[in-house]
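[09:14] KT: can someone run the structure on this one? pasting the chain below
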Amino acid sequence: MTPRSMLAAAACALAAHAAAKAEDALDLKIRNGWAVAVQQDGAVAQRSNKTSYPKVTTSDAAQAWTYAGAGEWTSGFFAANLWLLHGQFSADGWSTQAQTWQNGMEGQDTNTGTHDVGFMVFTPFGNAYRLTGVDSYRQVALTAANSLSQRYNGTVGAVRSWGSIGDNANFQVIMDNMMNLELLFWASRHGGSTALYDRARSHALKTRDNHVRADGSSYHLVTYDPVTGAVKSRTTVQGYSDSSTWARGQAWGIHGFTMAYRFTGETTFRDTARKMADWYLAHLPADAVPYWDFDDPAIPNAPRDTSAAAIAASGLIELSLLETDSARATTYRNAARTALNALLSAPWFATLGLPSNSQALLLQSAYNHHAGNTLYNQGTAWGDYYLLEAMQRWRRVDPGLAALPVAAVSATSAQAGNPAANAIDNSLATRWSAEGDGQAITLDLGSGRAIQKVGVAFYLGDQRSARFDIATSPDGNGWTTRWRGISSGQTTAEEYYDITDVTARYVRITGHGSTASQWNSITELSVH
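[09:31] RB: done, structure tokens below
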């Protein structure tokens, strides 16, 4: 080996070590983030009035939640938070709380007066169906999709955001509406009409053409003539000016176009997400938390918007996972890591321990600072939700840690043709399968090894969510449960579950069936 190659190898080793250390630091912050979520959302969940919902906190020192009714666009986020907590801590009663809190939302599935039924209904009920498989939740979401679809105008080629369906003067579409398209795309795959897919796709194309500027920045509001379909104006309602770039709108676009690419596979949506992400990252301040509007002349004394950072981080994680360009994937993944590291730290994140410095998770979100509005320096229901979503999505990111060698694998039982050995053959095309609650597969590492993460990939993991535990043992006799929860139901690839760093010889995954059946089917396992 030449001195230059030795130096390069040493540099690579140092970079890998630094990346592992950074990963460890973020893992600790995410663990703390879930603990704060349990504290904050658990406290709100005990509230007796479960028919009004957290919207924004006060901007004073109390940072106390203010509440709004079921018809407010923010109403579904809190129940959705509880479902995400159920996904992370499946045995701790979160599903019961989530069901109770979303009960008051069910009537919104027939609401045709707003595009926000995606936020209001699909955010809680979509997560509920994904994590439980209960068909009544699917039915509620399908009804909501059909209600939203009624706001579509074929001449414009988009779903109306605001105003009545019969308004023939103005047809308003805001960037936020990209997020509600997920309800339509999803419904087309879960029993709804293919027209729902077509309408969502058309809307995304129209938004690409008329909301996104050539440089990748964006307008907030485009108003069309509903009779001719022509663009009448491009303006803002929540940004600094009509020509500025509102941070949350840019984040909605990154997240929304990435989602459209996931459902359609059309590279035009990936390219739009890339363009918006590249612009966003190029204009961020050094601490990765955007000002409420990128063009506010008061910067650096302008309000920040942590909710925009959370939405963008979640979108960037998914974009990195879908990327076909490895360099771009790394860029977006690293940007998401930087954002999460910032958002889960002071001064942006609530403190663990009561009394906390806020009733929300994220501090310093900006709801609306347009034209002198002072709705900033607050916690927001949507900021908290997209932060939790980003934290859960992060477990799909390869930790960059070498997989530990496995000396032996065994299982309590196995279906004929699907033995335990299939789970460690480096192939997602084979699987270990066993039917029944409590079936387990055990990895023997040969000796005690330091363990940080366990990777698990489930058969048909993008169509069903699996319930399972991860436990470790030094000797194969005494076991300690390290993680108990539910897979995302959104990928066939490995998801990496962070466990408290431990030295152990044995790792056991115990299955409790899935949202589809009592079968436990794992295609691949790894220990890091």
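[09:33] KT: thanks! The first strand starts at residue 53 and ends at 57.
[09:34] RB: yep, looked fine to me
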